[in-house]
Amino acid sequence: MSDERHDDLTGTPAPQVTTRIDAPEPALPRPRKSLKRRLLGWIVKAVLIFFLGSLLWVTALRFINPPITFTMIGDAVSGHGVTKSWMSLGRIDPSMARAAIAAEDSRFCQHNGFDYKAIAAAAARNAIGKKRIRGGSTISQQTAKNVFLWQGGGYFRKGLEAYFTLLIENIWGKRRIMEVYLNVAETGIGTYGVNAGAMRYFKHDASQLSDREAALIAAVLPLPKKRAAIDPRGFTRRYGNSINRRIGVVAGDGLDSCLR
User: Fold this and answer.
1) Checking DSSP bridges between strand 83-84 and strand 186-188, what pairing results, if any?
2) What are the Cα distances from residue 236, in Å, to 8, 68, 139, 220, 225?
3) Cα distances (Å, whole numbers) of residue 131 to 65, 127, 134, 235
4) Residue 152 Ramachandran class (φ > 0 left, ψ -120 to 50 alpha, else beta)
5) What is the chain's pLDDT, residue by residue, as a tens digit (260 residues)?
6) What is the rounded CA–CA span in Å between residue 222 and residue 71?
7) Were 103 and a residue from 44, 65, 170, 218 both cysteine, which residue would form a disulfide, CB within 3.0 to 4.6 Å?
8) What are the distances in angstroms from CA 191 to CA 66, 83, 194, 243?
9) Distance (Å, whole) CA 244 – CA 214
């Protein structure tokens, strides 16, 4: 029996077809990125992670009360301990927010986080060599620093402070900013928030503060480790009296309208 194949019609042998399979060419190695490009890629990724992370962080604290801050951690590590007692803005006596506005940021309800007039005035005051250096920081800026950053100066920290100030102004709003500020601001060594401060100094909570008590707590805020609201003397007493007089102005002129 023959193995030769024939065409069915002519009887002639059918041509054999040979299929050639070429071996795959070896893949060329991918060119390695330069160190400069790799560093740039890492920086871009780090920046994106920071922006996304900070947005999530700020958004979360719009609804969740900050459990701890870097300043509190510093006090705990140094052995001062941390005393705090959260109280909602709706329960805190309105005189406390008015005292804070009178003492720290009279245009709190009008600005977008930065009081440029106060910054300019502080720069002018500091330029003529006054002993007490003023920075013109708003309550919004102080809240951003207290919640998200650390104490101290430096352009890097100031830049981060400005960034977080913009975020909380647009994500939190004025009422939440004031609420957080009044609960995380240091009111004494190891004491945080006006409610804990009221209990420390006046033996009752912040829901029933008199104007004078609120003014004394506000007078402590700039230097809480060096001032006390109990039997204040010197500058603290005079400053407290000045704040006390301005509380009525804040209420009468509607400077706390964004909190009502």
Assistant:
1) unpaired
2) 117, 28, 20, 7, 13
3) 37, 11, 9, 14
4) left
5) 555 555 555 555 655 655 566 656 666 666 677 878 888 889 999 999 999 999 999 999 999 999 999 999 999 999 989 999 999 999 999 999 999 999 999 999 999 999 988 888 777 776 776 555 455 799 999 999 999 999 887 899 999 999 999 999 999 999 999 999 999 999 999 999 999 999 999 999 999 999 999 999 999 998 888 888 877 778 889 999 999 999 999 999 999 999 99
6) 14
7) 218
8) 15, 5, 9, 21
9) 8
